[in-house]
């Protein structure tokens, strides 16, 4: 059933994009393809982020007058559905909790009860895609000698849903360095967040991922999560 749904989505996407489409390269291996209105700028219609290596879907959704609408689908690097979210009702319809296996959440402000019982902030994309997008902005990692590098990705998600990103990594000398990641407008628009929440109150929080980044030039670069 899942494969049938995905096939239908991709078929409808190809039909819409054949009418009027634009493309935007996001990372070395990912590309956004989307329909636009007659002005050639306003996103209006189907939108997809694809893996250009294997043509796998990463994000599939719909824009209406430059705003996300309806149900969006997000996939991990194994092409498995990681979450479904409806932008009209602002409700999570499905979330694969395995994505949080290598995530630590810290509530930054609030009472002890709020810090203990608040929900985690959640990115509206797979953690695979979040990591790949942020690490692609770090040439000192992507251009490092082949092998696995220890990385710590920290998204500081405010109560307003805006996030600031920091990546820490070990250098060849064994030193630990941190760098703030700034995204261009097109990339930043892809990273929406649901803030941490307790009893209807949004809270500031850190969403921290610890992983190894495989930078072997002879294979597809990818993030391997700690077990």
Automatic annotation (TrEMBL):
Residues 1-18 form the signal peptide. It comes from the Bacteria. Keywords: Signal. This is DUF3108 domain-containing protein. It comes from Mucilaginibacter roseus.
């Amino acid at each position: 059933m899942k494969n049938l749904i995905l096939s239908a989505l991709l078929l409808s996407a190809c039909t819409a994009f054949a009418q009027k489409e634009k493309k935007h390269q996001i990372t070395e291996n990912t590309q956004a393809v989307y329909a636009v209105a007659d002005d050639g700028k306003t996103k209006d219609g189907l939108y997809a982020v694809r893996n250009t290596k294997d043509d796998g879907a990463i994000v599939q959704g719909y824009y209406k007058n430059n705003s996300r609408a309806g149900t969006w689908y997000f996939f991990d690097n194994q092409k498995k559905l990681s979450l479904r979210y409806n932008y009209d009702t602002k409700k999570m319809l499905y979330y694969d909790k395995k994505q949080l296996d290598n995530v630590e959440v810290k509530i930054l402000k609030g009472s002890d009860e709020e810090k203990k019982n608040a929900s985690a902030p959640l990115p509206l994309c797979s953690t695979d895609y979040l990591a790949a997008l942020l690490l692609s902005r770090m040439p000192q990692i992507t251009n490092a000698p082949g092998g696995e590098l220890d990385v710590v990705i920290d998204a500081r998600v405010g109560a307003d849903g805006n996030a600031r990103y920091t990546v820490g990594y070990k250098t060849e000398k064994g030193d630990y360095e941190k760098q703030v990641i700034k995204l261009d407008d097109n990339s930043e628009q892809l990273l929406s967040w649901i803030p941490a929440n307790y009893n209807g109150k949004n809270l500031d929080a850190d969403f921290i991922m610890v992983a190894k980044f495989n930078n072997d030039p002879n294979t597809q670069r990818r993030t391997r999560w700690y077990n």
